[in-house]
Amino acid sequence: MKKIIVFSSLMLAVLAVLAVGTGFADEAAAVAAVVPPNKGDTAWMIVATLLVTLMTIPGLALFYGGLVRSKNMLSVLMQVFTVFSLCMVLWVIYGYSLAFTEGNGFIGGFSKILLKGITVDSVAATFSKGVNIPELIYAFFQATFAAITPALILGAFAERMKFSAVLAFIVLWFTFAYLPIAHMVWYWAGPDAYTSAAAGIKAGETAGFLFQKGAIDFAGGTVVHINAAIAGLIGAFMVGKRVGFGKESMAPHSLTMTMIGACLLWVGWFGFNAGSNLEATGAAALAFGNTMTATAAAALAWTFTEWMIKGKPSMLGGASGAVAGLVAITPACGYVGIGGALIIGLLAGVICLWGVNGLKRLLGADDALDVFGVHGVGGMLGAVLTGVFADPALGGVGVYDYVTNKVAEYSMSTQVISQLWAIGTTIVWSGIVSIVAYKLVDMTIGLRVTEEEEREGLDTVSHGESAYHN
Amino acid sequence: MKFVSAIIKPFKLNEVRESLTALGVQGVTVTEVKGFGRQKGHTEMYRGAEYVIEFLPKLKVEVAIDDSQLDQVVEGIKKAANTGKIGDGKIFVFDLEQVMRIRTGESGPEAL
Questions:
Q1: Pairing of the two strands B2-8 and B89-95
Q2: Do the chains contact at A316 and B49, CB–CB below 8 Å?
Q3: Residue A26: pLDDT band by 50, 70, 90 thresholds?
Q4: Contact criterion met (CB below 8 Å) for A118 and A203
């Protein structure tokens, strides 16, 4: 208990210093708006931000909650709920600044700490020249991504980790893995900086490391899914298996909840994917259509493959297939055509089914809710296939060149290599940060509850309440 | 007096109750139970994990009756709960020493 108090008071002290040093939204730094935002785009981004919020609370919370035993239901709901809130606050304090201001290729700077200088008139760039959206909604749209990603990890070490250890790990991972990867993949100067070839090169040099490598990730296949899945897999190894794993029944306590959660994820994901277009345009509609197509295809692919191999099509299989499809189409949704989305979905359903069966046995870790099997495998598959199906020759929209103002010549092999760079960098970066973060938390707070507490269930032990009374 | 305890398939409860009421049985106690017999359990699959469910859900129906009703009651339950498939259950019969109705203090066959 003492260690937790020391840890949290340290965090509070840091926050206090930051708060005193900077002050919220400095009115002095009001920036003259270049192009005022369009009301339609602004309205869409507000809605999209709400949809991504819905994905996490209660979508992901219920999806995960239904999959654990009833004695751990509240612990999962509470972990998702608290991690969402925690990352939201960290994002406002320093997350947005470190991810989305100019710095070096790996991390941004402190210029927008506590959202300093962002006013109602501040604008953020979109993917069209001369089109802006309010920076405040951009910052909070991105905030929901920064909050759901750490929450995805929770499924891997569900049912056995101390609540305090979960929070401490998340603070470290959010700061040293999520923020840098988001910066590396997504930070750039915006299209308006690409006025000429020379200006384009100069602007390109200020962008994130993986952006410069040419990796494309429309809505977060690497930043969100691979990133979280690696942290989850390492967590499953370092926290260790649940007591009784492989011997006792750990059957999900409510697949009804899981189905509701999966559907909320599906609906909310339209905010995630179509919202990542940042404008309410035909390109957003394409991302929407691709998301719908791939998800439905993946749900069917998982269902029918399971039916053939195991004899019965399960509800959990259908729901898992839908999530696998959502994950796989995420990086691709703004770049591929509907045909590409269909193939990506079908492959995701089959390959992620292998991810939670054959691959899971091969890895031997107790990734309790299959974070790696679904988000890791689906994320990597999607990232590679984005490079394949973005090809205009395969019905994709290609990659836009803001210097020549048209779609650039497309080389599938070059793009796939860029995608592999993004996957590899994310695996190594998230992997190393995760190992260090789990180790630090293990040495200070300790990762696991005792065996007796684990048998009793985290609801009563960690939270002093029970989900169900009968 | 006799005490009859029958383990039946849960979906057969209504038919068993109807048959017992038709025979003039005044009260029935039903409990949700789990167990196994020759039917054994079954396997459930959740993604990659398979779990053998060893204990199956059944209902235990208990009635206290007069000696004269025994044959009819056993026969009635047997007919009503029968599906002809494995796992239909069993009927146990015990001698019943004493019965008392709490409200009136009556005892013996009058209390049934």
A1: antiparallel
A2: no
A3: very low
A4: no
Other CB atoms within 10 Å distance of the CB of residue B104: 9
Residue B61: what are its φ and ψ, rounded to 5°?
-110, 125
Angle at CA of residue A302, ends A155 and A257, nearest 5°: 45
CATH number, domain containing residue B44: 3.30.70.120
Class of domain A24-457: mainly alpha
Q: Which residue of chain B comes nearest to A319, CA vs CA?
A: B47
For chain B, say whether A466 makes contact (Cβ under 8 Å).
Answer: no
Q: What is the Cα–Cα distance from A55 to A219, expressed in whole angstroms?
A: 14
Domain around B10: 2-111
Counting the structural domains of chain B, the total is 1
The C-alpha atoms of residue A176 and residue B107 are separated, in whole angstroms, by 78
pLDDT of res. A266: 98
pTM for this predicted structure: 0.88
Residue A251 to residue B47, Cβ atoms within 8 A: no
- DSSP-derived letter for residue B59 is E
What's chain A's average pLDDT? 93
**Contact A356/B51, CB-based, under 8 Å?**
no
Q: Has residue A202 got a pLDDT over 70?
A: yes
Position A27 pLDDT exceeds 60: no
Helices A377-389/A338-355 angle, 10° precision: 150
Q: Mean of the pLDDT values across residues A324-346?
A: 98
d(CA A7, CA A44): 40
Closest CB to B48 among A251, A312, A357: A357
What's residue A6's pLDDT? 55
For chain A, domain boundaries: 24-457
